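Morning!

This is the sequence you dropped in the shared folder:
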Amino acid sequence: MLSVFPSVDTPTCAASVRKFNSVASELADTVVLCISADLPFAHARFCGSADLRICGSADLENVHNLSAFRNREFLAEYGVAIEDGPLAGLAARAAIVLDAADKVVHSQLVPEISEKPEYDAALAALK
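The structure's back. Tokens below.
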């Protein structure tokens, strides 16, 4: 699963990372890639915060935080780049579920950046 979002430093993004992280621990054969344009330092700080010490821990070895900061091509190729406005250059919020053969089985580009993804639809596709 790809959980794409603008920045771990916003409440909605942080909530979606927490939600998908908790779900990943309950599902076998599931890997969650949390992708934003944040620098790796921001991901490390977020994962070390008191409320989310589980990133990269043994509890969630199938959750990985990735930075698209040096790979803007990812944002363009997956259609998740914010093109204009004050957030231009960051990732839009999206949830993409791929099967074992890397075929997309669910995709949601959240229409309003402040809204959460449809967790239930993404989780149903994971199962």
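Headline: Strands lie at 2-4, 32-36, 63-67, 94-98, 104-109.

More detail when I'm at my desk.
O.
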